[in-house]
Structure formats: structure tokens, C-alpha cells
Amino acid sequence: MTKLFLFFTLLISTRIFALPIHSPVPGGIAVLNLPADTRSIIYKDRQGMMISEAGKRYAVLGIALSAKPGTHHLDLKRVDGTSATLDFVINDKIYKEQRLTIKNKRKVNPYKQDMERINKDRAEMNRAFTSFNQSGDTKTEFELPLSGPISSPFGLKRFLNDQARSPHSGLDIAAASGVEIGATAAGKVLATGDYFFNGNTVLLDHGQGLISMYCHMSKITVEVGDTLSQGEILGEVGMTGRVTGPHLHWSVSLNNTRVDPNLFLNEKN
């Protein structure tokens, strides 16, 4: 195996070509130059996204919120069958705290009889998040699924009824019940369901492990297997699941890792 040292990455704070913003921090995305003869890449035991732009090849990797700062490794497989390792650095990032009061205490501390449903929900969503459609035309130029103020940004350290919970894994966009929600980019509907925490939910596959999720809807207007264009309506804002009011929770997953959706947009929110 050959050891490659990454002397430079795309140190960019704005979008370039169709690539997301390079932000190598927990919850961020690493956009890395690849050798021209790279056939496939593996990061954290998962297949990674590769995009070709202007005659160059790039790895686009989702970095977990739990990732430790320091040097990380990307495994490469070359066209000739040989392998190599590419090193890159993840920087630290501190996210703010958020404390919410949930009136339905069962949504914070589920009953024993709720766990069977919760586990089933997680298994169904995980099947979608771990899918990898080897698309040759993956689109990473996203648009917001609806207009509205961001009521909760990505990455917040959350406390529900003063109990620590997992960090916020998406953007919450405040809007009135019934407001239509559009697909953030072209994709295929992988899963829909009424989940215990997420309420009415749709998951869209955009190719190469890039998945978007839309939660807490009052109505779902698509079915599994539907192919949607960017902006096509998939449902309406509601307050199903664990919520404090009507809004859309929109999240983006890359290589089964929830990342900051802002990095796929032209403007941060």
C-alpha cells in the first residue's frame, strides 16, 4: 500500500463548480483532491462519494459530529488494483447549546412499549442512510426545501427537559402548518413513514450515499420509488413527532453521516 500525504485540499469558503463547501470539522465535509487513477474510496469502512469536475477528481466525505480533531485517513483503490492511503486533517469546532421543553414527556423518555416501534423506525431509516446508489450524475447543488427562519441550526448540543440528548443533526425551518415542502435536489424516494420521534418523514436518495430527510410533516404527497425533480413538492409542514411547534426538520446525510446542510447551499443559514 502506498502512503500519500495530502499537502493541500480545497481550502474554500465558497462553492466551486458543483462541489459542496470544504469544511473539515465535526459535522462538516472534506473535499479532497484525488489522483486521476482512483477507482473507489473508503472512509470509516464506508464507500465514499467521488465527483469529477473540470478534468479533476474529488472525494466528498461526510465527517461525523463525534469525529476527533487530528489526522484522518482515506483509503484509495486504484484502477490497476493497487491501494493507497490519503491523510487529511479534521479541525475542532464548538457548537452552542440549546435547551427545549417538550410537553409530551413520552417523546423525551419513551415508555417500554414504545421501544419496539422506535427500533423498527431506526432500522428502516438506517437502511436508507446506508444505501449507496452508484450514480454517475450525483447533484450536490441544493436549495432550501422552503422559505422561513431557521429556528434551530445544525450541531446544537441539545438538552430536552434538562436531559442531554444527541446533537441537532439538521436545520429546523419554522413555517406554518400546511406550507409546501420541495425536494432540495433531484432524487428518488427511498422511504416514507410516520416515525415516533420524526413524525411524518420522507427520505430522498441523491446518489453515492447522499440522502436528504424531511421530518414532522402534516402530509406526505409522494411514495417510495417516486423520482422527483429539484423543487418538486413532497409534503407539507406540520408538527408530528417530537416537536414544540410546526416546522420542518431538514437533514442531509453523506456516507451515513449527518452533516451541516448549509455546506450544500450557496448561502449559509
Written overview of the protein:
The structure is a single chain. By secondary structure, the protein is mainly beta. It folds into 2 domains: 2-90, Immunoglobulin-like; 97-264, Glucose Permease (Domain IIA) (Distorted Sandwich), CATH 2.70.70. It is built from 1 helix and 21 strands. Strands 10, 13, 14, 15, 16, 17, 18, 19, 20 and 21 form a 10-stranded antiparallel β-sheet that branches. Strands 1-8-7-3-4 form a 5-stranded mixed β-sheet, with no helix packed on it. Mean pLDDT is 88; it is low at 5-16.
Q: What are the defining features of this structure?
A:
269 residues, mainly beta, Immunoglobulin-like, Glucose Permease (Domain IIA), 2 domains, ten-stranded antiparallel sheet, five-stranded mixed sheet, 1 helix, 21 strands, 6% helix, 42% strand, globular
Using only C-alpha atoms, the radius of gyration works out to 19 Å
Order of helices and strands: EEEEEEEEEHEEEEEEEEEEEE
Question: How much of the polypeptide forms β-strand, as a percent range?
Answer: 35-45%
The number of distinct structural domains comes to 2
Note the total helix count. Answer: 1
Largest sheet: 10 strands, antiparallel
Low-confidence stretches: 5-16
- Counting helices, strands and paired strands, the structural category is mainly beta
Beta strand count: 21
The CATH topology annotation of the largest domain reads as Glucose Permease (Domain IIA)
CATH class of the largest domain: Mainly Beta
Query: How would you sum up the global shape?
Result: globular
Oligomeric nature of the chains: single chain
CATH superfamily of the largest domain: Glucose Permease (Domain IIA)
